[in-house]
UniProtKB/TrEMBL annotation, chain A:
Coiled coil: none
Record-linked PANTHER family: METALLOPHOSPHOESTERASE, CALCINEURIN SUPERFAMILY, SERINE_THREONINE-PROTEIN PHOSPHATASE CPPED1
Protein name (Swiss-Prot/TrEMBL): Metallophosphoesterase
Residue span, Calcineurin-like phosphoesterase domain: 55-225
One MF term in the entry's GO annotations: hydrolase activity
UniProtKB/TrEMBL annotation, chain B:
Organism in which the protein naturally occurs: Hymenobacter metallilatus
Tagged with keyword Signal: yes
Protein name, entry field: Outer membrane protein beta-barrel domain-containing protein
Keywords, comma-separated and alphabetical: Signal
Keyword Signal tagged: yes
Domain of life per record: Bacteria
Signal peptide per UniProt: 1-19
Length: 271, 220
């Protein structure tokens, strides 16, 4: 019994030092690096802006661009009054714990708190467990200045198109929960127009968004470029952002009743 | 820091090897033709090597991306080349799902230095490994992706290894083979970490992509 406890102690010590890695697919990090979305939300709620305006940075796909991430952080830190930074998924490339930690080591230097939504690359191998450990639940919501943000896993292909992802029932529950909500923004990595979105879930998903009167827009990433439009001709605006490698990001400002402004920032491009 | 340690070990290894060669002046050079005793009168060789296909040792290790605990057996060629086959395990608590790993390690240790009494040191072991992981959460079903959707394999890893081994001589076997118990460490990395490093040489350092394994080897 005591020997067993000793053995656990030895392994605990070895695992705390990440050099002795049991598997690149392992899914545990030091306690202070767990539940980072929850930590960021706690920080965000302690210092809310006095007005009803929300101003946030949106970019996608940090995967394997560590050098570029440093430049991104330097640029964002020069922007005025950013409430938070939203990373649109594909934080990692291979779904490995070390990649998540390498990205966090850089993004934690942002002056504003940063939040993430899960991408398809984050679900490779044991990435699902790694994301849960590092950032927290795959589907989550938060309210800031009367704007309800619903962040969810839309990476249907990673689940073999099992018709469970995205979880439309959960989405409908969140959309129906309008207490203290002036308007709503839905964020998912893969947009429903993409072939990596579960085709059998598209009708239910887009219908749920259509039925939400206070929806400002749907945010996505994955395709590594900026697109904006109403592909289903139903009054719902779908927007996708750049990958971090493009050295561009968006600043979105939302206020009033479904009013928004989109700015594009280009940085570190030579010539 | 660790990177420097490895460099130091690399530099020190050939020096140590040449030092021991110099300290044995009585050894006759190879070119002197001294007729040996007839084969029949030659004593039974103390080393009496095993045929190459018989496992010569068992191994137990942790880390190196090959399991929280990994055990197996290995083959040895001329006490310099070791091929170890390991089965590793990572409990669900540490990986989100229980992982079973099968791996093969090939290590070449050019020098063996006698230290004192029964201790010997192989200052440098260099080689590589291959590993296959079973039991990942997203296990790439046949129809899940079109070919080339992800360019890398999620379950097969390869990587280089570099380490040292300290051995303690045990009483010889009944058949006269010498045996020892060894402790070793190996620094390593894997293909995906190397790709990450090569593309981010400003942001990542070699220490960021290092892994360490610690293990024991027992001759049988």
């Amino acid at each position: 019994m005591l020997r067993g406890a000793g053995l656990v102690g030895v392994f605990g010590l070895l695992s705390a030092c990440q050099l002795v890695e049991f598997s690149p697919n392992q899914a545990y990090v030091p306690a202070q690096e767990r539940g980072l979305n929850g930590q960021a939300l706690a920080r965000l709620q302690t210092a809310p802006n006095p007005d009803d305006t929300v101003r946030f940075v949106f970019v996608g796909d940090t995967q394997r661009f560590y050098d570029e991430t440093e430049e991104f952080v330097a640029s964002v830190n020069q922007q005025r009054s950013i409430d938070f930074v939203l990373i649109g998924g594909d934080i990692s490339d291979f779904g490995l714990t070390r990649e998540f930690r390498w990205v966090h080591q850089r993004l934690r230097l942002l002056d504003a708190p940063y939040l993430t939504v899960i991408g398809n690359h984050d679900l490779v191998g044991n990435g699902r467990a790694v994301y849960r450990e590092v950032y927290g639940p795959l589907n989550y919501t938060f309210r800031y200045q009367g704007t309800h943000f619903i962040c969810l896993d839309t990476n249907g292909r990673e689940y073999g198109f099992n018709q469970q992802v995205p979880d439309v029932q959960w989405l409908q529950q969140q959309l129906a929960d309008t207490a203290g909500t002036r308007q709503t923004i839905v964020v998912g990595h893969v947009p429903p127009t993409d072939e990596d979105f579960d085709p059998l879930v598209v009708p239910r998903y887009t219908a749920a968004l259509r039925d939400c009167a206070g929806l400002v827009f749907h945010l996505g990433a994955h395709i590594h470029r900026f697109t904006v439009g109403q592909p289903y001709h139903d009054g719902v605006t779908y927007l996708t952002t750049y990958s971090l490698q493009k050295k561009r990001y968006h600043i979105l400002t939302v206020w009033g009743q479904r009013k928004f402004r989109l700015e594009t920032v280009t940085y570190g491009v030579e010539g | 820091m660790l990177y420097r340690l490895i460099l130091a070990a690399l530099v020190a290894a050939p020096l140590a090897a040449s030092a021991t060669a110099l300290s044995l002046p009585g050894t006759p050079p190879d070119s002197v033709a001294v007729p040996g005793p007839p084969a029949a009168t030659r004593p039974v060789s103390a080393s009496n090597p095993l045929p190459w296909y018989r496992p010569s040792h068992v191994v137990l290790q942790t880390g190196g991306g090959l399991g929280m605990i990994a055990g197996g057996a290995g083959f040895s060629l001329k006490d310099r080349l070791d091929l170890d086959i390991l089965i590793g395990y990572v409990p669900e608590k540490y990986a989100g799902s229980a992982l079973s790993l099968v791996s093969a390690k090939l290590l070449y240790s050019p020098w063996t230095l006698p230290l004192r009494d029964k201790l010997t040191l192989k200052p440098l072991s260099v080689g590589g490994y291959f590993s296959y992981t079973h039991g990942t959460i997203n296990d790439e079903e046949p129809d899940q992706y079109q070919p080339g959707y992800y360019w890398f394999s999620t379950d097969t890893r390869v990587g280089p290894l570099l380490g040292s081994r300290l051995s303690y001589a045990l009483p010889a076997t009944a058949s006269g083979r010498s045996r020892s118990l060894s402790a070793y460490y190996e620094f390593g990395t894997n293909d995906l970490y190397i790709v990450s490093y090569v593309q981010n040489r400003r942001g990542l350092s070699p220490a960021d992509i290092l892994t360490l394994s610690l293990g024991l080897k027992l001759d049988i």
